């Protein structure tokens, strides 16, 4: 393992707040919400208990070629859009395909394809099941779409760890680079699960907000009246490479990737360990693995999904890691605006963390009308400046299965 | 009622375009699916499934391998629809 500095040189996003990074970031800073009523017939036909979600800002049919849309599940379509933006933003680096890798992630995979194939089978018989069904539903499909598009031949890996997935993909990308097996990696995640089956399933376990009459105010991390998360969808991608390579080609550098860490609770299949010891260990390891101190951290993009239990559990873990220093950290929970992208959440929030360091501006947490008195955090509710210097920020993601993943970044100074 | 060659060719060209993005006006009777149009086996099977539905015909798997050119497929569908 080499310990060269790793940097972010390109970013891409296709989200409920916008079709690219510029629109997404501008709407995030403006305090907008991506949540709205779902205008599909299935909502009333199935009498779904939750009638809104944070859907992507534009139909991918209007962005991709028709044959790409036909051959790719929405989770792969979103991946392709974000991946292409990140690659172009990085200046389409001239890299040997054998030294280019993809570390992608999804929580659920091609659920639209899977369920529609099942309906074709039931209604029309096996002869009408599309031959592309398997490659479209497999969870590694989105990563493969990104990798094939860029001819990445140093490995296309996909991690599946629920809502921790795409932070884990960034951790994998760091390992990919540090192992010396790749020179450039595109890391990211995508999810397209605003579909009646996941909506009904998440609602059945009481995980979703039921604020049907007020979608834009439904995702409210840390607020006393939070009642569950808002299902989101989309994709985000980051181009990672060694500092040496980035400097040699004169690339724009957004931030340094200090590192990341993955731990597991092994406590309960869905509930976080209330003690938060494994989550705390992931944060500490991510920060210290890159040679930074806990007291260097000035900003956290929290996992905070707006569920009553989850937001408290993360707070307990934060106290355990940072102690008194926690009061000096500007915390934000951007799921208030984006909803919860599940397997795409970690990458999008890592992108926001990188942008916060690059622009030295923390994006706000919206809908925080009455902060939960049990959560004593400095939550940022309107854009706030960050100080100069080599400041550190982390992005947390936790997932069903007891997965904890943390990525740590440092402001880049040449 | 039997379909005409022209009807089937234009309908099939739409299916090929839908699946592969190949322009419909380049899809002619003498074109080979694999050698000229570079259509892989999974796309070919998708086109067959969609053609069965569109033209209301059956194209058994063992016959698909004999459909080398667009013209072969058009003739097969015209006959099967008769």
UniProtKB/TrEMBL annotation, chain A:
InterPro entries the record matches: 3-oxoacyl-ACP_synth-2, Beta-ketoacyl_synthase, Ketoacyl_synth_C, Ketoacyl_synth_N, PKS_Beta-ketoAc_synthase_dom, Thiolase-like
SMART domains in the cross-refs: PKS_KS
Molecular function per GO: 3-oxoacyl-[acyl-carrier-protein] synthase activity
Gene3D superfamilies: 3.40.47.10
Keywords per UniProt: Acyltransferase, Fatty acid biosynthesis, Fatty acid metabolism, Lipid biosynthesis, Lipid metabolism, Transferase
Pfam families (alphabetical): ketoacyl-synt, Ketoacyl-synt_C
PROSITE patterns per record: KS3_2
GO CC annotations, alphabetized: cytosol
One example of a Gene Ontology biological process annotation: fatty acid biosynthetic process
CDD domains linked to this entry: KAS_I_II
Stretches assigned to the Ketosynthase family 3 (KS3) domain: 3-411
Protein family: Belongs to the thiolase-like superfamily. Beta-ketoacyl-ACP synthases family.
Name of the protein in question: Unannotated protein
Organism field: freshwater metagenome
Automatic annotation (TrEMBL), chain B:
Domain EAL residues, every copy: 1-82
Gene Ontology annotations for the cellular component aspect, listed alphabetically: cytosol; membrane
Annotated GO MF terms: acyl binding; acyl carrier activity
Ranges for domain Carrier: 3-81
Keywords (A to Z) from UniProt: Phosphopantetheine, Phosphoprotein
BP GO annotations: lipid A biosynthetic process
Coiled coil: none
Claim: Phosphoprotein is one of the keywords in the record: yes
A Pfam family the protein falls into: PP-binding
Name of this chain's protein: Unannotated protein
Source species: freshwater metagenome
């Amino acid at each position: 393992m080499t310990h060269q500095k790793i940097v972010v040189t390109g970013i891409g996003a296709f989200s409920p707040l916008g079709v690219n990074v510029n629109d997404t970031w501008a709407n995030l800073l403006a305090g907008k919400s991506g949540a709205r009523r779902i205008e599909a017939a299935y909502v009333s036909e199935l009498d779904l208990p939750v009638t809104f979600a944070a859907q992507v800002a534009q139909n991918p049919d209007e962005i991709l070629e028709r044959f790409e849309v036909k051959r790719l599940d929405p989770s792969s379509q979103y991946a392709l859009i974000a991946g292409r933006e990140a690659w172009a933003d990085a200046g389409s680096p001239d890299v040997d395909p054998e030294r280019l890798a993809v570390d992608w992630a999804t929580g659920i995979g091609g659920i639209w394809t899977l369920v529609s194939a099942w309906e074709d089978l039931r209604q029309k018989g096996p002869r009408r099941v599309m031959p592309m069904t398997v490659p479209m539903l497999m969870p590694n499909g989105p990563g493969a779409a990104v990798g094939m598009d860029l001819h990445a031949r140093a490995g296309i890996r996909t991690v599946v760890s629920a809502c921790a997935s795409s932070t884990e993909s960034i951790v994998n990308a760091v390992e990919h680079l540090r192992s010396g097996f790749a020179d450039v990696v595109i890391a990211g995640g995508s999810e397209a699960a605003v579909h009646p089956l996941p909506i009904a399933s998440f609602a059945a376990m009481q995980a979703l907000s039921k604020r049907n009459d007020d979608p834009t105010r439904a995702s409210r991390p840390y607020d006393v009246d939070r009642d569950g998360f808002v299902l989101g969808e989309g994709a985000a991608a980051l181009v990672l490479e060694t500092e040496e390579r980035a400097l040699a080609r004169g690339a724009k550098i957004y931030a340094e990737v200090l590192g990341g860490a993955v731990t597991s609770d092994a406590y309960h299949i869905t509930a976080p360990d209330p003690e938060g010891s494994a989550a705390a260990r992931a944060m500490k390891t991510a920060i210290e693995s890159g040679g930074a101190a806990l007291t260097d951290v000035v900003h956290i993009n929290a996992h905070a999904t707006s569920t009553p239990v989850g937001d408290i559990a993360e707070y307990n873990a934060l106290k355990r890691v940072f102690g008194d220093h926690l009061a000096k950290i500007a915390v934000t929970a951007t799921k208030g605006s984006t909803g919860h992208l599940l397997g795409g959440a970690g990458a999008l929030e890592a992108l926001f963390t990188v942008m916060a360091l690059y622009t030295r501006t923390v994006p706000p947490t919206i809908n925080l009308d009455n902060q939960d008195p049990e959560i004593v955090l400095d939550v940022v509710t309107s854009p706030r400046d960050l100080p100069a210097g080599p400041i550190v920020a982390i992005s947390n993601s936790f997932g069903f299965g007891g997965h904890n993943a943390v990525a740590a970044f440092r402001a880049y100074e040449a | 009622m039997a379909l005409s060659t022209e009807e089937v060719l234009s309908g099939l060209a739409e299916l090929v375009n839908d699946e592969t993005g190949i322009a419909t006006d380049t899809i002619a009777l003498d074109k080979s699916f694999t050698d000229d149009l570079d259509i892989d086996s999974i796309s070919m099977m998708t086109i067959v499934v969609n053609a069965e539905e569109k033209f209301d015909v059956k194209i058994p798997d063992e016959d698909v391998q004999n459909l080398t050119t667009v013209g072969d497929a058009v003739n097969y569908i015209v006959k099967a629809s008769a």
